[in-house]
Design a protein that fits this description.
Layout: E1 4-7, E2 12-15, E3 19-20, E4 34-40, H1 42-56, E5 72-75, H2 94-97, E6 103-106, E7 111-115, E8 138-142, E9 146-151, E10 160-161, E11 164-170, E12 179-183, E13 189-194, E14 204-210, E15 218-222, E16 245-252, E17 255-256
Antiparallel strand pairs: 1-2, 3-4, 4-14, 5-16, 6-9, 7-8, 9-15, 10-17, 11-14, 11-16, 12-13, 12-15
Length: 258
């Protein structure tokens, strides 16, 4: 059975393997949005991601190209330089100041990390835990399971708004452990979407939302139950916490706040 993706504002009713739908709002006044969820192997999640890209519209805008009024930006971490890989000090503004894509990060932890070893450098027990959706680098906050993405007009310090944002997660074992909160320019939460849990080993989950116009100023991602460390084991390995990491980020071209 192929579940549906329902996009009411875009006038689309599409079918996609490994994807399902949920259109909702956190308050009565919240604008409606299309929700894109996918779970399974890389092929199933790729199908959901393709549908999400179609809903965003336009083309993929390459890093360091000038701001434009349409299209999307993507971060798959594999372009991070070797000197900034497998360290806990990846620059929070790298994807707006160096590889310009209009995204600036923050975390209540001590930093963010792009990793090419499935985080085995943090905990050798994780070597076989996580699989990359777009090989081979993955992403996670350091000392926290939460990371924030603030959008900027590409290459500037001016706050931006995007019409949609989606993220691929690796190894979501437990429903409710992983979710993405979407906020508007006034700091109002306009959506809160849970990533679907996996049904097998080394599977992926995708969650994304698309609004009719650019409304999203910031997203806050809760990735699993706990931060990665040298001793905590995943529930699938006999631990008590669902450990989850991230791969591809896909979002609309950041637009100036009018």
């Amino acid at each position: 059975m192929k579940p549906t993706i329902y996009a009411p504002l875009l006038g689309i009713l599409a079918l996609g393997a490994g994807a399902c739908s949920n259109v909702g709002s956190s308050t009565v006044s919240t604008p409606p949005y299309a929700t894109f969820l996918a779970q399974g192997d890389s092929a199933a999640v790729a199908t959901g991601l393709t549908d999400f890209r179609t809903a965003l519209g336009g083309v993929l805008n390459a890093p360091n190209t000038a701001p434009t009024d349409s299209g999307r930006r993507e971060i798959n971490w594999d372009g991070a330089p070797a000197a900034l890989t497998n360290v806990d000090t990846f620059p929070l503004g790298f994807f707006n100041a160096n590889s310009k894509r209009g995204a600036v990060y923050a975390t209540p932890g001590t930093g963010i990390r792009v990793d090419s070893s499935a985080f085995a450098g943090i905990n050798p027990a994780l070597a076989d835990q996580f699989k990359a959706f777009s090989p081979k680098k993955l992403f996670m906050a350091v000392g926290s399971n939460r990371v924030e993405v603030d959008f900027k007009v590409v290459g500037t310090t001016n706050a931006g708004l995007v019409k949609g944002f989606g993220v691929v997660f690796s190894d979501v074992d437990r429903a409710g452990s992983t979710h993405v909160e979407f906020f508007d320019a006034n700091g109002v939460r306009i959506a809160d979407l849970q990533a679907p849990a996996k049904s097998g080993t080394h599977e992926f989950s995708f969650v994304g939302a698309v609004f009719a116009s650019p409304l999203i100023a910031r997203v806050v991602i809760t990735s699993g139950d706990a931060a990665l460390d040298g001793s905590t084991l995943d529930v699938s390995a006999g631990g008590t916490k669902d450990l989850v990491v991230m791969d591809d980020f896909v979002y609309g071209e950041p637009q100036p706040i009018q």
